[in-house]
Amino acid sequence: MKDLGRRRLGLLGTILVVSGCAVLAQESFCDKYTGILFGDNTGSNQYSFVTRLINTAFIGNYSGPSSVKITGILSPGTFNGEEVSLLPYLNGGLASANRGYRPGNRTVINFLDDGGVFALEQGKPSYSQRSNQYKLFSHMYQYFGGMLGCSLYGQDGFPAYQGNARMYEVHKFMNIAPLQLGYFTQELSLAAISLGVAEGDALTVASILNTTFGQACAPAVAVIPNAIRDLQAICINTACPPAKDPICGTYNHQGGFGIDPSPADTTAGPQDTDLAPLLFSIANGGRGRYRTMTTSDIDITATIGGKKILISTYTIVAVPDAPISFTASDILVTTIIHDTETIVPSQTLVPIGGGFTITGVTESTTDGWIYSQEFTFVIPSSVIKEATTVLTTDSSVITSTYSVTVVNTALSGFKEGLSLVTLTSY
């Protein structure tokens, strides 16, 4: 989206003010773009459209390339020039979740506990149906489907909303301010435009979100089909603009607002550094095209002449997950045994089609002359599962087998001197 469009999304208060039902006029937003993207306007296709919209807003353009830049709700970003991060509300970093109507029941919950980004980029809410992540994202698909006017909402292929329809109650311990709500709305709107939604339609939806959820002490309103009028304000920080006819006493009676959630003692969910490599890959074309590498040191131990010989080397390991298809590649390790340089043949498993290339220029000086030489260094994106070393000494054949464990997925580079370098394969 153009910078102008992004600025316009930041000025939601000046955009057309409509109620949550205005989007249902004539052909609904959901029906219109389900037909454009999927052809048949069925209940399952409507659900797929809303799923793609929400997942794209959270992680970026996982379903295909787009010229629209989406940072993603799970990534730190900016709104109106201010830095913002919504991840602590989602990874259990804050005591901000509400587990019921009892005031003061602030809970730490990790909502990325069942597949995280990996499940979302596969077009799913989660890997199973018994997790916090499943409940959060499936409820979001259902709620937005009802709000965006999906005509088959609540029918075959599109389940009706199963959660609490009072959005104030759901969010009241988060102390959401215009910065946080604005960032969420901005990324959702950019996600819509990246999927082919007209900018005017995306701005109308942004206005609905702002009007329905972005005004403190707003009067009760029904947002989704078959719901009763209820308290919906999510923006409850003191910086939030007041509603035209505020009913703050009603909101205060339900638990208060304007209190910052306390940080959790420990965070069970992923951190920014854990998510950054994969989200960067998605933002630049998808995990299938880009793969982040790290190195893992290994030691080969062989017994020669009754003595154990340690041969140090390293391998390149793909993160966050190992490739599936491999081909064998022979490697040679040079070591010194009994003062004699010895070549040790070994074998590594290399993912088919994997690898990355480093290019550059090296310079050397001789007799005052500087020579420049271009070089290309190709490193296979290999993940060693098992390797065998065979040595022949004193007419004896000695075999040593070792294995390597794939490194932690939170790692995103390898140590080169004192700098941390991230390599990306193509």
UniProtKB/TrEMBL annotation:
User: Superkingdom of this entry's organism?
Assistant: Eukaryota
Q: What is the lineage of its organism?
A: Eukaryota, Fungi, Dikarya, Ascomycota, Pezizomycotina
User: This chain belongs to which protein, by name?
Assistant: Uncharacterized protein
Tell me which positions the record assigns to the signal sequence: 1-25
Native source organism of the sequence:
Arthrobotrys flagrans
Q: PROSITE patterns, alphabetically?
A: PROKAR_LIPOPROTEIN
The alphabetized UniProt keywords are: Signal
